[in-house]
């Protein structure tokens, strides 16, 4: 286990090495304080460029790289706007495509207006926007999803600068849960309705999206969806407030040289078609699943275990994006980034929502205090069963689980028992496990 997310400190992003050159190119255009919070946000944008490819998850299911969703959480004035700069840089070709589509739509509207009421109107052209506006409404989103499906199952991408924009996109706050679940799981929209113009469609949703929001707005928006699966499907990237150093952050110049390098990588995403099995990535994901189980056992926290499962899937999709960017080859550095993404997502969720996950409702500062506690870290290096039982009781956990927790810790190699002294001791492997 490399990261200890029970601590307030954010997981430290590993060095970007071989196989992560595209990520380094993108980060070269943002201020250094945004490197770590922006890395998880890049993969939904890049993943939207992959249409027509499937990858086998370790459970043997086949998944497309659509359905990636990430929410950047930072206080007002903390440089969240730099995300939109990268969105526009990566999606320049989407913009060009959409401008051409818009011209077709405008021309059709002109033709419709020139026809008298008793004349046959020209049919609406098949227009699909790959990068719809952030204020897209639910009917327009469904219509555009139908057009993208007609055009070969193209993935559309949306960048929402406020989390409340999801209400308009989904047709109201009560529909957010269903829509986000359908987007994540690549399901149909569930929008088959009879209207005056006929029957509306029910398209397969191939969508990636990014969101920016403050901690207050984020907590308020997701408060009712923490236990229904919606919360786990969204990747969160939290940037804590930093010290007042009085420095104005610098961003890049987005030169022609930058775009030339970036376009070489985007071309690899656009041309990726077919079915693939990335065995090193799947092996890593299996390993991370074990680490997630270890984390849940150390904290005796079922909520952590539940949210970690979809964090694994989201990080796995990011790994598939890296694999395509790196000419379909795998490196150690790519694996380190995938591992970081899992832990950073869970850490972010705990920093922003821990108290709400315990059915409280206080400030973000209280959420930090209410985060999961590694019980073994709160014990001395050598301890007895009674000490663990007392610790469990102080944490509001039943004493009946003490023996089971000792068995689990022993089987995982965290502790060892001495029959001679009747005491448990932390193993050296456990003491060396985190950074």
Q: Features of this protein?
A:
435 residues, alpha/beta, Rossmann fold, 2 domains, four-stranded parallel β-sheet, three-stranded mixed β-sheet, 12 strands, elongated
CATH class of the largest domain: Alpha Beta
Number of contiguous helices: 17
Distance between the termini: 9 Å
Q: Mind telling me the C-alpha Rg? A: 24 Å
Specify the oligomeric state. Answer: single chain
Q: Which bin fits the share of residues in helices?
A: 40-55%
How would you spell out the order of helices and strands? Answer: HHEEEHHHEHHEEEHHEHEHHHHEHHEEH
| CATH fold-level name of the largest domain | Rossmann fold
Topology summary:
Blueprint: H1 21-27, H2 35-47, E1 53-56, E2 62-63, E3 69-73, H3 82-90, H4 92-114, H5 138-150, E4 156-160, H6 165-170, H7 176-184, E5 194-195, E6 198-199, E7 207-213, H8 215-222, H9 230-233, E8 235-238, H10 256-270, E9 274-276, H11 279-299, H12 302-325, H13 332-357, H14 364-369, E10 382-383, H15 385-394, H16 402-411, E11 415-418, E12 423-426, H17 428-431
Parallel strand pairs: 1-9, 3-7, 3-8, 4-7
Antiparallel strand pairs: 1-2, 5-6, 10-12, 11-12
Helix pairs in contact: 2-3, 11-12, 12-13
